Amino acid sequence: MISPKLILMPLSTSGHVTERLKGGLAIAKYFNAHIDVYHTHLDPKRFLPTGQLGLPTKLLKELDSVAGRFATTESTNLKAEFVNLCAEQQVKFTDDSTEQPMHPSASLHINLGLRSEIIAEQGKVADLIIIPQSKSGKSTSTFEASVMRSGKPILLVPRQLTHFDIKTVVIAWNASTEVSRALTYSLALLKQATKVVICTSSSSADKMPNGYEVVRYLAQHDIKSEFVIFNNGRQSTVKAFMSVAQVHNADLVVMGAFTHRRIHEQVFGGMTNYMLAKTPFPILMAR
Fold this sequence. Notes:
Blueprint: E1 6-10, H1 17-31, E2 34-41, H2 57-89, E3 92-93, E4 105-112, H3 115-122, E5 128-132, H4 141-149, E6 154-157, E7 168-172, H5 177-185, H6 187-192, E8 195-201, H7 211-219, E9 226-230, H8 237-247, E10 252-256, H9 264-267, H10 271-278, E11 283-286
Parallel strand pairs: 1-2, 1-5, 2-4, 3-4, 5-6, 7-8, 7-10, 8-9, 10-11
Antiparallel strand pairs: 6-11
Helix pairs in contact: 1-2, 3-4
């Protein structure tokens, strides 16, 4: 992929807001890009009972008004913090979506609707989608919609990541179509890295193309890399891989998302879900 110039990041207010904003701005600075941060509110009418079994109209209007005032106050406070962080991080804040911004730059969008729907749609006209780890460590509808519907690479980042500088990249290679796409999307990052390691478990070492073919492919892009095969031992493949990535001091992992062709409930419970909960480093993934 080309170095991203338009990055998208959803933002909830479920904790670590400052850290997540700093992390998004750090990534925008790294790529010298523009970041659009999307914060959404649900329409309170979706949750208020109506009709014969509902509450009186006057009370419904009052509840709606209270919810609206809360959303306005939250949005105002969030924007104030975001503008201050942009100044602190030396990223230009712009409120004009039609402006051709100077990079690095950032905008905050406050929308009414479902975060997953907005991110899936807007992600189609972005180069990269940043998804912070969920508070629960489990897959969220926003993450799933981004991966399954946007058609763009996802950068999963730890919730408290505030610094982004990629020197060592570890690629989880299993010869799948998904990791092949992730590999192509990561080329701009790999060119800037000082160390690139392709890792394959012993159970996948015979799958073609193998890691040596990946080394050859990257060499055509003037990227030097090394190939290692690891044994799981008594660990699961994902735990063994995580150990290898940590041994190499990975700053970034590149992997495919949901590579096993199983039903939805099973797909979101595999290696990807484990990485969602456990990863200490950013992960670039694609499907």
